[in-house]
Amino acid sequence: SITELRTKVNGHRSKFYDLVDSHKKDKNFALNFDEIDDENILGAHLFVEHNARDKSLFNEYYKFDILCNLCEPDNLRKNEQFYIDRLNTRTPFGLNQIKSVSGR
Predict the structure, then answer these.
(1) DSSP for 47-84?
(2) pTM for this model (two decimals)
(3) Does residue 92 have a cis bond before it (omega within 30 degrees)?
(4) Fewest beta carbons within 10 Å, which of 6, 30, 34, 83?
(5) Is residue 9 within 8 Å of 59, Cβ to Cβ?
């Protein structure tokens, strides 16, 4: 991603907080799976799979690292796919839902 790490993580954290707040307002709140996308997939995973209902759990469950700091913008998608493939983070083993450009 060309987005700064703190901006990207804060965006994911904010989406998780939205889910927690919705649940606090309405205990019958149900996540609409049609609305899950790259922006809220991390929060949705915590909320559904780990039954996380406390905002502090985001920082406990997720750790973020920079895998490649010198990627050229033209090669960004290819490098992202390289790490998705290498670390096997596509569904069903991980949370990445995009198809691999490497064909795997």
Answers:
(1) HHHS---STTHHHHH-----S-SS--GGGHHHHHHHHH
(2) 0.76
(3) yes
(4) 34
(5) no
Rg (CA), the chain: 15
> Which residues are registered as beta bridge partners of 90?
96
| DSSP string covering 11-49 | HHHHHHHHHHHHHHH-TT----GGG--TTTHHHHHHHHH
Alpha carbon separation from 56 to 15, 39, 52, 66 (Å, rounded) = 13, 19, 9, 22
Distance of CA 92 to the CA centre of its chain: 14
Residues in the chain: 104
Distance of CA 59 to the CA centre of its chain: 13
List pLDDT tens digits, range 46-77.
Answer: 998 899 999 999 999 988 887 777 777 777 88
Which of 59, 26, 64, 31 is closest to 45 using CA atoms?
31
- Three-state DSSP at 94 gives coil
Judge contact between 100 and 90, C-beta under 8 A: yes
